[in-house]
Amino acid sequence: VTRKDVRMRVNVDPAVCQGHTLCTLAAPQVFLLGEDDGHAYVATEEVPSELEDAVRRAAATCPEGAIRVQD
Amino acid sequence: VWSERNGGYWIVSGRELIGQMAKRPDLLSNDHDPLGRRRGYGGVAIPSPVNSHSRGGFLEMDPPEHLAYRQILNPHLSPTAVERWRPMVRDLARACIDDVIETGSIDFVDDFANIVPAVLTMGMLGFPLVDWVHYCEPAHAIVYTPPHSPGWKRVIELMLLMAARLADELDRAKTNPRPGMLASLVEAQQNDPDVFNDEDILGTLTLLIGGGFDTTTALLSHAVHWLDGRSIDRAGLVQDGSRLDTATEEFLRFATPAQGGGRTITADCEIAGHRFRRDDRVWMAYGLTNHDAEAFPDPDDIVLDRFPNRHAAFGLGIHRCIGSNLARMSFKSMIGEVLTRLPDYEICHDGIVRYEDVGTINGYQHMPAAFSPGPRRGEPLDQVIETWQVALDAPRA
Lengths: 71, 397
What we know:
A: three-stranded antiparallel beta sheet; 2 helices; 5 strands; B: alpha+beta; three-stranded antiparallel beta sheet
């Protein structure tokens, strides 16, 4: 479901993520870490507008470039 | 850059290039095969170690073997798993400081940063905690002593003693395992004795001890060194947890305890416009990369709130340091203890001893400091270790 107030979408490429965990420093509300290996996944692909900056910072700090942002 | 030294090898730095290369484990092999059973590759050390007959655990393996080991060990080292060790790390850090706080002097390496990660590693492996003393000197000496130097003979002797001790520990774990990483490896051996053979389990134990002991020690030493005389920065780190988070990443970037790793090219290829030939040796220079001015403005300055910070201190790609979550947790606990208990420490610069060889680990052998003495807060280290051993050995509910 695409809501009107959501303009940005984000996901983590599981083949590229290696579990550096830096995304959770930038946007802990959006990125969660797997129990077993600490690899990241998104709580929801739809980014609330107030978290857009944090998600951009997360994408910019990912050492592997695993975070895909669409806006 | 091509270097003619050590038989000739490429030095790869530059943030974009190294990132692209790390994503090609199909073209870059970590395999170390000194006996020529497979392709005879040289592993992750350049030059390859002389007189070595075995490889350094899963760091010197390629998929799928490498992945099999990571899957067994990852659950011990995930963010959730390492969080369970935080209370022990806190107690150990507190006790190490207690044991010197009435004297007014400390060697941050010998009295502190050598001890906490070592005891922690013992606990995670499922070894007796008190045994940290037997592994401490070999683990550090092998990285700070240059091969072919007069001290190398002593390193070989220490490593042989350590190997014998590890073999005993493996035997014991097969009959009477303590919970921990070794028990998980022994259990995996029952399902897949080829991949989890004794030799590679022993190599893995050596790798985990080397990785667990010396790297966090180096990071802590660099951090207390840089914070010398910077009282405003120290106070900021104590007061603001998120500042400590970004500062930790910045110390990692700046110091890069593990400077890089060797690879062997498996086929003629071109990556990001660079041509390589089969069997070329390559050094992934993560330390140099972390000072790439295009990726990190003012790369030689420490900027405590630098963020984003795409540093490669834990390596990139499938061989990312498996202990990175543990390193962060223990470093933050340790530096927190230093800054709250010894807020006015001053490094004694004459007593600093840097590793003679920083090619593997960028560390210090000694980092002495003086401070205003204070009161103890709890039991001494040996009692804390004893208490934690009892707690770890108690049957779990």
